[in-house]
Amino acid sequence: MTLPLPRLDDKTFAQLMEDARKLIPRYAPEWTDHNTHDPGITFLELFAWLTELQRYYLDQVRDENYLKFLKLVGIRLKDIASATTDVKFSFTDRRELVPILIPQRTKLTTNEQVIFETDTSLLMVPDSLQKVISSCKSGRQDNRQASDQLGLSFYAFGENAEAGSCLYLGFKLYVFDWDNVCSIGFNIDSERLKQFLEIYLGFNWVKNIDNEAIYKNDAGTQIILNYGEQRLTLELDEINNQVKLTFNEAVIDEIYLIVVNENNRRRIYGQPFPIDKSIALTFNLFEDYPVKRGEYAEEELVKIIPSATLAWEYWGSDRLWKKLDVNCDETLNLSQSGRLWFTVPQDLSVRNLFPFTEQLFWLRAVVKEAGYELPPKINNILLNTISATEKDTLSEVTIHSSHHQHVQSFPASYLALIGENIIQVKQFALTLTLLFFNSRLELLQTIFWLAVVLSYESEMQHGYWKDWQNYRLEKNHVTGTITVTFRRKIPPKGKNNIRLISYLEEFDEQRFLGRSNGLPSQSFSLKHFVIVSESLKIQIKQQIEKDYLWKDWIQVKDFDASDPEDPHYVLDAENGKIYFGDGINGDIPPVLDDEYSICVVSCQTSDGEKGNVEAKTINQIFNPVSTLVNTEFICPTKLTVENQRAASGGAPLETLEKAKLRARKSLKQINKAVTSEDFELLALSTPGLRIARIKAIAPPATEAKNLVKVVVVPYSETPIPAKPSSGFLQNVYQHLEPHRLITTKLEVIPPSYVEVKVKALLRIRSGFNPDEVCQQVNQSLIERFLHPLHGGFNSKGWQFGRAVYKSEVYKAIEDFNKGVDCVKTLDLSFQTTDKDTDVTLDRQGNIHISVHTLIYSKKHEISYENQ
Question: Which of 44, 99, 365, 688 has its CA at 20 to 30 Å from residue 712's CA atom?
């Protein structure tokens, strides 16, 4: 029941005037003229009007008040949310050999001009995946067709994913035709051979030779490439269907090419990836299970511990499986969809994988330690796929470290390569000033150096930046780098002390918002919005002695906690305005004569909900016009792009009304675990896990009274229920730990399972097939009644610790099948593999189990009486 809201505005203007007239005889009996023409009445009307206005405002709660109230309960209006999806790049010509770098934040668009940007850079390589083989105790199976066909899935390590099971990925890349190399004039196969040797194997000198320097021996079994003292020989071994490489008379054991005879042509295949490059494999897992994963809370950093342990390996030139250098595994050992980033080894080699005869280059994942609650089930495995977010970057800032050299190279994004650029170097004015006075502080050395350290740390975070002069920029779209040549003064060596500002050419004039007038509570309008709040960065020019330096100002939600000298500003994303402080809460920007003293250095816009586009609608690579570089470097004519699934997650700026509803819901959510029900509800929401059932057990008299045991049952589809792995239990524990009371001890444990077996003799009704009825009763007991997840009479799973009574089994048999006339005899028995499980059989034949135990069944003895 809510408290009644008092009405403060409870009197009208007429009522106020009437009350005032009634008070006149008491306080001014000589005042007898109460008509409207009297000046005194005029004053009363004025004050009644003011009182009515005041009462009206007292009875109102403005939006600003609601925002402050919401802040008190930890609720702020949500920023605009950008939609995300995965996009797959493909070569227009499937025979394309040269990889193409897709820089970070490459702009993609739909036919409706909704702009997406790639979240990371991607080296696009020819799609060379040939085999996807699952290997387990039951044998090996090629799942390549299932991986390519929409709607089909396959088990990565078989249905049980035991230790030792493997997932093999076989690759090969078509390079050239042996018989076509060295023909007269321009030859595409000779060019492809040179490209492969240079890009994939690292023989950079090959690009400098002409086709005339490539020739065969008289027998046609060798291809020789000469360049000065460099000599590379490719020798054909048709017996082993391989090509051996010899460099300057030294055999390169780790490099082999594959020979495949197709239509009387000797086609040469090579390793699929350039050595020492980072490649991404995308794994899309089957997720359409009845039990959904626990959702991640906003701004919650959760480290999920995988249930099983995998080892990624490759087949090396020494004929051994060797460890693959994995840079990042977003899949958490194939327990969720994501990308696997790995560095290409130098000694990839070929082999066949029995019973398959095809010679391929192999990668594999080996289950070193089993423990999957749900064996990984894969929809598809993709190359050249990366995530993209609906946003448009107008300006960005990247931070780099100086090596104090004239020529320095930095990795570059898409905007850095196609846009305009400015270099800034961090300055340390305060620290240098303290150093100047060092000689005068000899008596206070400790205090002095403490001040130097504190000032240095402050400046590293909130220091000044100086526009650097006298440098030359060179942009390399092939390597995705920017090389800066400093002509005179070189930035000092330091960490994160060089800043590269990149922006679109058309955003040049719109970066500057104006200048400060020195007055409190100034506001400036942005030219583009809706702005993604976290992307906005502003710097303001200040005069430090004789230099003009830029200082970063910090975005805050409001000025409530801002001190007078804090360089803070507030963004109104909906209206595209920024506000500065009043000198009491938040600093006032300094006054300069420069018209361009307030500058936007980082800014992204988003269309929010409009970004939730359908599948296959992101189909273009967006190349804005620029006079600085050739914007065709991404080669849109050579590539196609497509999102295979719909984009999701886009949402507009949250309204106040929606924030109020969210606040009401959040206040009803359980954040502290006090009762058993609290523990169970919180455990079910563990991020990233599929939890079928939870039971919080109060401590018995023999244990500590503050101990709470939480029994966790993971969702599984195996006939014998899966026990949670140690990683699974640890994930639940670390999720519950922050929510428990400080005096509560917590323990997360797996359930104990008892196998129950029913032996029953039935009488079958006439008109029913006895064998079919017995079979149906057996299946009903296994799947519908004696089941830990969806058994019992309510089909929500057998209750923890509930005894199995013969009377209930009688009833279940008769209820589940109309062909049963009666149950003549029935006996229960049990079996357990856990010696510590507390289970007993009483005199009446009922099975009693402990409070953390569940039952299951595999097969029952159901027979019928002959009539």
Answer: 365
* Residues paired with 424 in a beta bridge: 467, 499
Q: Stretch 109-136: mean pLDDT, rounded?
A: 92
Tokens, residue 741: 């009371």
Of 202 and 423, the structure prediction assigns the larger pLDDT to: 423
Residue 634's pLDDT is what? 57
* Full DSSP string of 173-211: EEEEEGGGTT-SS--HHHHHHHHIIIIIT--GGGGGS-G
Question: Where in 531-627 does DSSP place strands (E)?
Answer: 537-544, 547-556, 568-572, 577-580, 598-605, 618-621
**In angstroms, rounded to a whole number, what is the distance separating the alpha carbons of residues 571 and 531?**
9
Contact (Cβ atoms closer than 8 angstroms) between residue 105 and residue 415 = yes
Q: For the beta carbon of residue 672, count every other beta carbon within 10 angstroms.
A: 11
- HSE-CB of 410 using CA atoms within 13 angstroms: 23
pLDDT band at 718, cuts 50/70/90? Answer: confident
SS3 label, residue 587: coil
What's the pLDDT band for 628 if we cut at 50, 70, 90?
Answer: very low
Report the chain's terminal Cα–Cα distance, integer Å: 66
107/337 Cα distance (integer angstroms): 24
Burial 78-117 (b: 16+ CB within 10 A, else e): bbbbbbbbbbbbbbeeeebbbbbbbbbbbbbbbeeebbbb
Asked if residues 720 and 819 have their Cβ atoms less than 8 Å apart, the reply is no
pTM for the full predicted model: 0.86
Confidence of residue 55 (pLDDT cuts 50, 70, 90): confident
Cβ distance 837 to 756 under 8 Å? Answer: no
Which has more confidence, 760 or 297?
Answer: 760
What is the H or E stretch that residue 335 is in? none
232 has which bridge partners? 225, 247
Instruction: With beta carbons less than 8 A apart as the criterion, state whether 857 and 786 touch.
Output: yes
Lowest mean pLDDT among 50-64, 149-163, 848-862: 50-64
**Distance between CA atoms of 258 and 240, rounded to whole angstroms?**
9
pLDDT tens per residue across span 405-441 = 999 999 999 999 999 999 999 986 544 444 444 444 4
H or E, element range at 374: none
**CB contact at 8 A, 494 and 402:** yes
* Positive/negative CA dihedral, 862, 865, 866, 867: negative
Residue 472 CB coordination number (10 Å): 10
Which of 850, 813, 818 lies closest to 828 in space, CA to CA? 813
Burial 528-542 (b: 16+ CB within 10 A, else e): ebbbbbebbbbbbbb
Only one residue has tokens 């295949």, namely 269
d(CA 254, CA 767): 74
CA distances from 733 to 683, 710, 738 (A): 8, 9, 9
Distance of CA 740 to the CA centre of its chain: 28
DSSP 3-state of 477: coil
Dig out the tokens for 530 from the structure: 């809706």
- Residue 192 in tokens: 């492809």
Amino acid at residue number 661: L
Question: Nearest-CA neighbor of 693 among 799, 601, 776, 618?
Answer: 799
Helices and strands (H, E) in the chain, number of each type: 13, 50
* pLDDT recorded at residue 577: 93
Question: pLDDT tens digit string along 682-696?
Answer: 999 999 999 999 999
Beta-carbon contacts of residue 668 (< 8 Å; ≥ 6 apart): none
Q: What are phi and psi of 420, to 5 degrees?
A: -90, 155
Answer for the pair 843, 743: CB distance below 8 angstroms, yes or no: no
Bridge partners of 236?
Answer: 243
Read off the pLDDT of residues 222-246 as tens digits, 9 standing for 90 and up.
Answer: 888 888 888 888 888 888 888 888 8
Q: What are phi and psi of 505, to 5 degrees?
A: -60, -40
Contact 349, 254 (CB under 8 A): yes
Map tokens 């029941």 to a residue: 1
